[in-house]
């Protein structure tokens, strides 16, 4: 599932002169374009798929006479052009957020990037992420620590080879080294699986259809109910904004459902990298801290290890499955 196997030709890294950083001889660098190609192929294939979805939606609307129904009621929108317009802006916003995600994460959480380790804990953190990254077949991400009492961590970045993995101060202070390693393995799993790119593209699809149907509703209300001739009166703008809020809220359940599925995959990746028992132990430790408030920014919760607990219908809008379900899934994995 996206992890490269080590070969007998792997070159062992050595410590450099400062005794801290792992370095590789120049001869050990081998150009393997598959890493960048796989990310770009994922984007291109997903975009192609969603362009097909837009095309199918356009054809379906025409076949079912939706254009004629709208025209008969005085609404003469060009639905094909509207759909393309919404797709362009829907994906633009989502992809822009993805490309600035590392910068936003650092700013919103106060994450301090470790460049030169000042303590043995920071040195251990860097070396552990280095090892996990090699095992997962990705380049070493930036590593940081953010000030928070809660035990948490997150991964972000537009590319699996240009990512950021950060842990909270509370996680480092209260979790054992094996538990921290398992949490880091989970986050590396998110990066290796390309979850940031995939979720951004899913959000782009959701944005497209929220914008599309909100504008249809706005135009319909303005022309049919308020009898505005061109369908662009004040009622159009008010209705469109309100419809975007309502539809966006409902559609977020789709994104969160997808996010929960990716969490199981990241747990599985963490189990492969750090061991199943260690991954279960880390989740059990997180379960014991469920009373601690989670203050992670909303934009990062989908890629954190701990997103808090919600019950009832609110569970539909959780970015993470309940910890009990995640632990049980790992136990079934064996």
What key phrases describe this protein's structure?
61% helix; 12 helices; alpha+beta; disordered N terminus; 334 residues; 6 strands
| Beta-strand residue percentage | 5-15%
Order of helices and strands: EEHHHHEHEEEHHHHHHH
- Placed side by side, the strands forming the largest sheet appear as 3-4-6-5
Q: The biggest beta sheet, please? A: 4 strands, mixed
Number of strands: 6
Helix content: 55-70%
**Total domain modules:** 1
Mean pLDDT: 79
Compute the gyration radius: what is it? 23 Å
Large-scale geometry: elongated
Uncertain segments? 1-37
**Terminal CA distance:** 17 Å
Number of helices: 12
The structure class reads alpha+beta
What does this structure look like?
With 334 residues, the chain is α+β, with helices and mostly antiparallel strands. It has one domain (39-332). Helices cover 61% and strands 7% of the residues. The protein has twelve helices and six strands. It has helices at 34-63, 66-72, 79-99, 101-109, 120-136, 169-174, 177-192, 195-225, 234-274, 276-287, 298-301, 323-333; strands spanning 14-15, 22-23, 112-113, 142-146, 153-159, 162-168. It has a four-stranded mixed β-sheet, sandwiched between helices. A hairpin with a 6-residue loop joins strand 1 and strand 2 (22-23). Helix 1 (34-63) packs parallel to helix 8. The longest helix is centred in the last third of the chain and has 41 residues, at 234-274. It is elongated, with a radius of gyration of 23 Å.
């Amino acid at each position: 599932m996206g992890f490269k196997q080590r070969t007998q030709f792997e070159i062992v890294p050595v410590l450099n002169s400062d005794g801290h950083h792992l370095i590789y001889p120049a001869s050990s660098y081998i150009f393997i374009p598959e890493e960048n190609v796989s990310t770009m192929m994922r984007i291109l294939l997903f975009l192609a798929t969603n362009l097909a979805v837009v095309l199918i939606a356009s054809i379906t609307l025409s076949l079912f006479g939706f254009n004629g129904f709208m025209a008969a009621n005085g609404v003469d929108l060009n639905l094909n052009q509207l759909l393309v317009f919404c797709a362009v802006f829907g994906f633009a916003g989502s992809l822009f957020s993805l490309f600035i995600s590392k910068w936003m994460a650092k700013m919103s959480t106060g994450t301090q990037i470790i460049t030169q380790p000042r303590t043995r804990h920071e040195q251990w953190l860097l070396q552990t992420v280095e090892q996990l990254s090699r095992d997962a077949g990705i380049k070493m991400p930036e590593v940081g620590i953010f000030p928070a009492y809660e035990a948490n961590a997150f991964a972000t970045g537009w590319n699996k080879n240009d990512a950021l993995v950060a842990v909270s101060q509370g996680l480092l202070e209260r979790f054992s080294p094996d538990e921290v390693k398992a949490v880091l393995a989970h986050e590396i799993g998110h990066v290796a699986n390309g979850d940031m790119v995939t979720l951004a593209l899913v959000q782009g699809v959701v944005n497209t259809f929220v914008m599309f149907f909100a504008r249809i509703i706005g135009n319909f209300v303005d022309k049919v109910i308020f009898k505005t001739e061109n369908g662009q009166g004040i009622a159009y703008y008010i209705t469109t904004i309100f419809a975007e809020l309502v539809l966006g809220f409902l559609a977020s359940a789709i994104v969160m459902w997808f996010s929960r599925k990716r969490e199981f995959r990241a747990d599985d990746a963490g189990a492969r990298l750090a061991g199943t028992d260690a991954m279960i132990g880390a989740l059990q430790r997180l379960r014991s801290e469920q009373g601690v408030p989670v203050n992670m920014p909303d934009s990062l919760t989908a890629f954190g290890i701990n997103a808090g607990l919600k019950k009832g219908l609110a569970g539909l809008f959780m970015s993470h499955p309940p910890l009990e379900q995640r632990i049980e899934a790992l136990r079934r994995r064996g």
